[in-house]
């Protein structure tokens, strides 16, 4: 299956929408870089210098061009960039499944942005892209992300010991999945 090489604009619940990263999103990156957790589990640079922000944006654009993923900016109903949701498809040729991840800037949390974004990207991946399944991983103490996964109808399949390195240490992760059969 040949996947698209562009990031589409997607509508999401409650007036949120998803779009491609742009140069105008450096303020969102600067805010995310000050969060104590986001830079540990993502590629958001900290400190977020102008050069680091430019490199980050270019990496996001390149991921779609080379077919490894779709990084989206989450935009709130007022038009403000508030977070990121990424669909990573690099293993689709081998496994058929994609992985998804998300984060929301500290000033925009608890407003439904992550749940709306996760729902939209999941519907697109399982529908238009016809992927058989998507998985996501969450640290046991990350209750906000756990609630987001559950609200988006992801099902927990168990704990994966030492699954991901966070802050230089292997960490256990809950595995959540959504499939076309759900």
Question: Quick recap of the structure?
Answer:
The protein has helices at residues 26-34, 38-41, 50-65, 92-95, 113-126, 143-151; strands at residues 10-11, 17-20, 69-75, 81-88, 97-104, 133-138, 155-166, 169-179. An eight-stranded mixed sheet has the order 1-2-3-4-5-6-8-7, sandwiched between helices.
Model description:
Helices cover 31% and strands 32% of the residues. The chain has 182 residues and is α+β, with helices and mostly antiparallel strands. It has one domain: Gcn5-related N-acetyltransferase (GNAT) (Aminopeptidase). Strand 3 and strand 4 (81-88) form a beta hairpin. It comes from Kitasatospora phosalacinea. It is an enzyme of class 2 (transferase).
Q: What distinguishing features does this structure have?
A:
8-stranded mixed sheet; alpha+beta; globular; 32% strand; Aminopeptidase; 182 residues
């Amino acid at each position: 299956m040949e996947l698209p090489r562009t990031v589409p604009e997607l509508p999401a619940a409650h007036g949120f929408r998803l779009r491609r990263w742009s140069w105008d999103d450096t303020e969102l990156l600067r805010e995310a870089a000050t969060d104590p957790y986001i830079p540990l589990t993502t590629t958001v640079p900290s400190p977020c210098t102008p050069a680091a922000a430019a490199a980050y944006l270019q990496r996001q654009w390149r991921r779609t061009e080379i077919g490894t993923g779709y990084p989206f900016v989450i935009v709130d109903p007022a038009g403000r960039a508030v977070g990121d949701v990424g669909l990573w498809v690099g293993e689709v040729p081998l496994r058929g499944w994609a992985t998804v991840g998300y984060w929301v800037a500290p000033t925009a949390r608890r407003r439904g942005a992550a749940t709306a974004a996760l729902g939209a990207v999941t519907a697109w991946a399982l529908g238009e892209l016809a992927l058989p399944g998507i998985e996501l991983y969450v640290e046991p103490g990350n209750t906000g992300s756990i609630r987001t996964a559950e609200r988006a109808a992801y099902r927990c399949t168990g704990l994966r010991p030492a699954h991901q390195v966070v802050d230089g240490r292997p960490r256990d992760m809950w595995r959540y999945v959504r499939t076309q059969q759900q």
